[in-house]
Write a structure and sequence with these properties.
The chain is of the alpha+beta class. It folds into 2 domains: 4-183, Fructose-1,6-Bisphosphatase, subunit A, domain 1 (Fructose-1,6-Bisphosphatase, Chain A, domain 1), CATH 3.30.540; 194-326, D-Maltodextrin-Binding Protein, domain 2, CATH 3.40.190. Helices cover 30% and strands 22% of the residues. An 8-stranded mixed β-sheet has the order 4-3-5-6-7-8-9-10, with helices on both faces. The chain has a 5-stranded mixed β-sheet with strand order 12-11-13-15-14, sandwiched between helices. A hairpin with a 5-residue loop joins strand 8 (157-162) and strand 9 (168-172). It starts with a helix and ends in a 5-residue tail after the last helix. The structure holds 1,6-di-O-phosphono-alpha-D-fructofuranose. 1,6-di-O-phosphono-alpha-D-fructofuranose (AFP) binds at residues 55, 106-109, 198, 234-236, 252, 264-265.
Length: 327
């Protein structure tokens, strides 16, 4: 049996990185236990305030955020933390060599209905050791990530992680508290007939995306020549996990629903870590045209349209956008 600890010892050359991953995943055990208690732990419902995104915070959003912040502040290798729930990055230990970014509880609108939620994390190098970290230190392209992963609090708690060219998965054994290796090289089929999108936003999409979805709905009778199926977890972690398990396409495209937002998902602590996992599992990840991991960020909370999953399908969406001409 390979545990997370033994996997990190065998596959990682950085004890600092191992230590920070261990800190994050240990908090994941606490969040998992709280979720298991659900309503009995008085953690459901609204916290009564809004985050920097203007979104109503759930009690567990705030609790998960604070648990991660407190644990990472004590980790000497962590120089700073950026969270979906906080306006600005939080300096930690100036001599640390790593920066940690996270969405502490992705899919939090699912909490009160007992549906899947997760924690998404990304780890970047800190280039100014000895100095107090600032927002600008976090503005690195996703291709600079040293590690990325998520915890999915579903029927079981699963950790997906990449620290090398592989994507691995662990399952949390609630009896022992160990993360036990269950997949040592996740690979995504290049083709799929399953896609995930919130179709209620159809009227806000750009024409190429409308055409793409029209083709999928047309199924066997249309240009794609086969029927497609949809799934929508309303928690990116759940949709990405399904794709890592059985392929598929996930997209939260550019929409004009909120003019000041390029899409709903955040680049630094949602799209970038998920894109690294998807690419290293053989998939693709774009903003419909450009590779997400090459985007040079300008703000720690900037949003980005996302198309990710089975490589040939992601390429199909790109070709359709690049070659689109009004009919
Ligand atoms: P919440 O964390 O506010 O529930 O949002 C989750 C999320 O950012 C992402 O995880 C989902 O894929 C997406 O939003 C769902 O968005 P819709 O609620 O518009 O379908």
């Amino acid at each position: 049996m390979t545990t997370l600890t033994s996997y990190l010892d065998q596959h990682s050359t950085s004890t600092e990185l191992n230590d920070v991953i261990t800190t994050v995943t240990n908090v994941g055990k606490t969040i998992s236990q709280l979720l298991r208690k659900g309503a009995l732990a008085d953690i459901l419902g609204e916290a009564g305030n809004q985050n920097v995104q203007g979104e109503d915070q759930k009690k567990l959003d705030v609790l998960a955020n604070d648990l991660l912040l407190d644990a990472l502040a004590k980790n000497t290798h962590c120089a700073g933390v950026a969270s979906e729930e906080l306006d600005n990055a939080t300096p930690a230990n100036a001599d640390g060599s790593l920066l940690v970014l996270f969405d502490p509880l992705d899919g939090s609108s699912n909490i009160d209905i007992n549906m899947a939620v997760g924690t998404i994390f990304s780890i970047l190098p800190y280039q100014r050791q000895g100095q107090t970290s600032e927002n600008s230190d976090f503005l690195q392209a996703g291709n600079q990530q040293l590690a990325a992963g998520y915890l999915l609090y579903g029927t079981s708690t699963v950790l997906a992680l990449t620290i090398t060219e592989n994507v691995v998965m662990f399952s949390l054994d609630p009896d022992t508290g160990d993360y036990v290796l269950i997949e040592d090289n996740v690979q995504i089929d290049a083709d799929t007939s399953e896609y995930a999108i919130n179709s209620s936003n159809y009227r806000y999409w750009r024409a190429p995306m409308q055409q793409y979805i029209d083709e999928l709905i047309a199924g066997e009778a249309g240009v794609r020549g086969r029927d497609f199926n949809t799934r929508w977890v309303a928690a990116m972690v759940g949709d990405v996990h399904r794709i890592l398990c059985r392929g598929g396409l996930f997209t939260y495209p550019f929409d004009t629903k909120y003019a000041h937002k390029a899409g709903k998902l955040r680049l630094m602590y949602e799209a970038n870590p998920m894109s690294l996992l998807i690419e290293r599992a053989g998939g693709g990840a774009t903003d419909a045209v450009n590779r997400i991991l090459d985007i040079e960020p300008t703000d720690i909370h900037q949003r980005v349209p996302v198309v990710l999953g089975s490589k040939n399908e992601v390429d199909y969406v790109k070709d359709l956008h690049v070659n689109y001409s009004e009919k």
